[in-house]
Amino acid sequence: MRPDSGVVPSPVSTGPKHMSRTTLSVVALALLLAASPLFAQDPPQPAAMMELPESALPPDLDRVLRDYERAWRTGDAKAIALLFTEDGVLLQNYRPPVRGRAAIEAVYEGQRGSPLQLRALAYAAGDTVGYIVGGYRYGDAPHDIGKFTLTLERAPGKAWLISSDMDSMNAPPKPRPAADGPAPAKASPASRQPVFQEPLAVPGS
After folding, report:
1. First to last CA, the chain
2. Residue 88 pairs with which residues in a beta bridge?
3. Which residue, 17, 118, 120, 155, could crosslink 65 as a Cys pair with Cβ 3.0–4.6 Å?
């Protein structure tokens, strides 16, 4: 139609431009009901971690782990302390570092023995310094319950000694259920916080 015809064109209907509130409410409810099964599902769980393979150690490094196991199994605090350098450091969960053989022996004094098993996951060694990264478990447990690092020092031609020892468990300890009756006596630091923690309800043994 020509613009100068004098006839005003009628508006052309292209359908409703706006939905009513009732229509919007119905659509929103339908979408929510359709999506609700998705939100109701449990969140995806992480895939199970594969346990790292053991790394074979040279005899001089393997001796460190085997001596540690023997001393731990017999509860020999002095023998454990002698595996460290004079200024060796013990790094335990929930406690400040402990330095020196005498202090390390005091931490373990009176601790009962248990069947600790150590295995290496990685290592490196030079002339005077080295390290072992590993996992630990107890008795016949099929999997590691924790991991550790040992940093090592030695004088030329001498045996390796531990300069620092740090470990942690692979999962947080389960809280111990509250028991009726009076609270138990407070455990000593040695029995409560061993470096290689056993799988009990609370950290330590």
Report:
1. 96
2. none
3. 118
On whether the pTM is more than 0.85, the answer is no
* pLDDT-based confidence at residue 1 (cuts at 50, 70, 90): very low
